[in-house]
Design goal:
The chain is mainly alpha-helical and 131 residues long. It has one domain. Helices cover 67% and strands 3% of the residues. It is built from seven helices and two strands. It has a two-stranded antiparallel sheet.
Length: 131
């Protein structure tokens, strides 16, 4: 889908795609609560326990989210920021133990879903108060 097609995409379709991205990001980063704590983690942290391969698998899911962002017409600057979030998550995730702890806190997919949602949420102009 080209950026021009994304520009004429009905708002309800964009919302549906954003909801899909939100759900996938939540599954990857914060679906589960560590028992006895308030710490949220997702499949990314669990799969990341498998050295190298786990983080690379998670990288594919994160790339899928960025591909959706591109198809929705997200600007290059936003896509670059999303890519950096993923790269940092993947790179630090390669380091045993430190990477696993980082995965629980960084939550690149949730960050990217939030960035995308904020980009597509209409900005309501603030009215000046009457004096």
């Amino acid at each position: 889908m080209s950026n021009l097609e994304a520009e004429i995409m009905p708002p309800e379709h964009i919302e549906q795609r954003l909801n899909h991205i939100d759900g996938l990001a939540r599954l990857m980063d914060s679906q589960f609560t560590l028992p006895g704590t308030q710490i949220k983690l997702g499949l990314d942290a669990l799969v990341g326990l498998v050295p190298v391969i786990g983080d690379t698998i998670s990288l594919g899911v994160s790339g899928y989210i960025v591909a959706h962002a591109h198809s929705l017409g997200a600007p290059k600057r936003l896509l670059t920021r999303m890519g950096f979030n993923i790269f940092l998550d993947w790179l630090i995730g390669l380091v045993p133990l430190i990477g696993d702890i980082f995965d629980v806190g960084w939550k690149a997919n949730n960050r990217n879903a939030d960035l995308l949602r904020r980009h597509f949420t209409p900005k309501v102009p603030q009215k000046k108060p009457l004096r």
